[in-house]
Amino acid sequence: MKDVIELAGRGLGIADVVSVARGHVPARLGDAARSVMERSAALIDEFVRSDAPVYGVTTGFGSLADTVIAPERTAELQLALVRSHATGMGDTVEPEVVRAMLLLRARSLAMGYSGARPEIVDLQLALLRHDITPVVREHGSLGASGDLAPLSHLALTLIGEGEVLTADGALASSADALAAAGLAPVTLRAKEGLALINGTDGILGTLCLALHDLAVLVGLADVAAAMTVEGLLGTDRAFAADLQALRPQVGQAASARNLTRVLAGSAIVASHREGDGRVQDAYSLRCTPQVHGAARDAIEFARTLAERELDAAIDNPMILPDGRVESCGNFHGAPVALACDVLALVVAELSAIAERRTDRMLDVTRSHGLPPFLSTDAGVNSGLMIAHYTQAAMAMENQRLAVPASTQSLPTSAMQEDHVSNGWAAARKLRRSVDNLRRILAVEFVCGAAAIDLRSPLTPAAATGAALGVVRSAVAGPGPDRWLSPELRAVEQLLFDGSVLAAVESTIGPLEEI
Q1: Least packed by Cβ within 10 Å: which of 379, 397, 422, 463?
Q2: Percentage of the chain with pLDDT > 70?
Q3: pLDDT in tens, 411-455
Q4: What is the CA radius of gyration of the chain?
Q5: Structural domains in the chain?
Q6: Are 154 and 205 in contact (CB under 8 A)?
């Protein structure tokens, strides 16, 4: 992890976004970017002094684009814009998402195509440094002219209005929080209010965090599947490299290699290589590389779109170095909205196959000798029966959340903004589905660990054994019924904090990505 992230307009990576949003790594405006911003801001001053109508600088917004604003009222226009557009409702957005939004809007402004002064970016980055997080409400963005309402709540804090969460999580007025940190609010000049709110930063920030999490979760899904293969006395032969090469899908091959490595040396798998009357495993085991691999390929597609957006200038109008001011549609969220929807499909599929693998371990008619619901005293005890219910409920929710949001559109702004991306909604439901996937895998890990224990004295592979050891640090093995919710949530945390993956990779080396 870098000690400090320097904003140069381009070159920001997904890992940088996560470092600032989650890791609280500080960021600074680079010297070259500062100079570019100063030149762009000087052009805005010239436009204000002229009589030419420039959208958002000397005119109103949206369907009011033909309304000319007197030079002496251009600053008032920007202030009114921020206040009127901060219309969010509903629950508060998570601080890490808001921090990502602050960083990403600063990144776009740093490219020098928005006409904003460096002082604006300096204050945005100071908020991050002092852990002052504007309160953003969940509902308000259509992902069309960017995330207007969410970004307006960020802009309110810059002018000393609105609400924030302080470093200790307390709610405070922006004015009080700025004063306590020794920071002064900015006075917006022409174009700056518009520049602060006309971006896809809420969608992109959420997408970056989801991509980071999914890169881990798809590897954990391979490990969970391997534990289930052992628990169900499945075979690793379907994962052989020569079979996978017959279908040259990149993600599929990577997943199959992971499964082969994780299962290497398993005494459980070796115990039934000969004399097993089963011809083949069920799809949920045998086709794991195909499903997990397709997920990997789609994640890579979404990562490509996100990385392009991280190098994009997002605003309207754009202030070009030669002095031209051009209106465009770069603020439209379609690219990142579609990426979010694709990932929601990915998550739904990973969830569905994990639930099916888990169900097989619990069903005495299909688990090849395991006790009902992995209970050593079934009847009086229910074992892991209802843990599966919880998992199934979340898997079905993820199927609902996979319904695309980006196919929905309603016209706004008196038909001027007549097609919207709905990307913010796509991002919000993706975030919920990713959290569900982690919980779904936690249930499979708990069940897989119990199934492996019940195969004793046969021993698992070194890698699955390492994962089992981490799970056992929080969850006892099969026995009388007990309160399961804390245990399931504890394993969820072990997946989130990297403990399980670290144990596996310390045994066999890093799992493959693509």
Answers
A1: 379
A2: 99
A3: 888 777 888 899 999 999 999 999 999 999 999 999 999 999 999
A4: 26
A5: 5-199 (1.10.275.10), 206-313+351-409+420-508 (1.20.200.10)
A6: no
For residues 43 and 57, give the distance between their C-alpha atoms in angstroms, rounded to a whole number: 11
Which one, of 307, 114, 100, 314, lies nearest residue 199 by Cα? Answer: 314
- As a dihedral over the C-alpha atoms of residue 314, residue 319, residue 325, residue 331, rounded to 10 degrees, the angle is 10
Single out the catalytic residue among 55, 113, 283, 389: 55
d(CA 400, CA 429): 10
Quick check: 277 pLDDT over 80? Answer: no
Quickly tell me which residue has 């801001």 as its tokens: 41
Q: How many CA atoms lie within 13 A of 290 on its CB side?
A: 10
The region, left, alpha or beta by phi > 0 then psi within -120 to 50, assigned to residue 167 is: alpha
Count Cβ atoms within 10 A of the Cβ of residue 277 and give its class: 0-12 exposed, 13-18 middle, 19 or more buried. exposed
pLDDT digits (tens, 9 = 90+) for 355-398: 999 999 999 999 999 999 999 999 999 999 999 999 999 999 99
113 is catalytic: no
Strand 325-326 relative to strand 318-319: parallel, antiparallel, unpaired? antiparallel
pLDDT band at 62, cuts 50/70/90?
low
Q: What is the C-alpha to C-alpha distance for residues 367 and 382, in angstroms, rounded to an integer? A: 16
- Comparing CA positions, the residue from 326, 231, 238, 345 lying closest to residue 288 is 238
Three-class DSSP category at 70: coil
Torsion of CA 109, 111, 112, 117, to 10 degrees: 40
- Per-residue three-class SS string for 167-224: CCCCEEEHHHHHHHCCCCCCCCCCCHHHHHHCCCHHHHHHHHHHHHHHHHHHHHHHHH
Dihedral angle computed from the Cα positions of residues 227, 228, 229 and 230, in that order, rounded to the nearest 10 degrees: 60
User: For the chain, give me the number of helices (H) and strands (E)?
Assistant: 20, 9
- Its pTM surpasses 0.90: yes
**Residue written as tokens 């890490």?**
96
For residue 178, the cross-strand partners are: none
HSE at residue 383, side-chain half, CA atoms within 13 A, is 24
Choose the weakest-confidence range: 164-173, 327-336, 465-474: 327-336
H/E stretch holding 62 reads none
* CB under 8 A, 24+ apart: contacts of 280-283: 280/238, 281/229, 281/232, 281/234, 281/235, 281/238, 282/356, 282/360, 282/366, 283/356
- Element of type H or E holding 351: helix 334-362
